[in-house]
Amino acid sequence: MESTKTIIIGAGASGLMAANQLASAGRKVILLEKKHQCGLKLRITGKGRCNLTNACSKEDFLSHVSSPDFFLPSFTAFDNKDLIDFFEQKGVELKSERGNRIYPASDKATDIFFALLRDIEHNDNVEIIKNCDVKHLITEKGGIKGVIANNEKISADNVIICTGGKTYQTTGSTGDGYRILKLIGHKIVMPVPALVGLRTENGYPASLQNAEIKNCEIIITDKDKNIIAKRFGDIYLDEYGVAGPVILSLSREIAREFDKGKEMFLSVDFKPKIDKDKLKEEIISTFKTRRTENASSIVRKWVPKPIAEEMLNACRINPKTMGYKLTEKDAKSLLWYLKFRREEIIGDMGWSEAVITMGGVSLDEIDKWTLESKKVKNLYVTGELLDLDADTGGYNLQIAFSTAVKAAQTIISRT
Ligand SMILES: Cc1cc2nc3c(=O)[nH]c(=O)nc-3n(C[C@H](O)[C@H](O)[C@H](O)COP(=O)(O)OP(=O)(O)OC[C@H]3O[C@@H](n4cnc5c(N)ncnc54)[C@H](O)[C@@H]3O)c2cc1C
Question: What's the whole-model pTM score?
Answer without folding.
Answer: 0.92
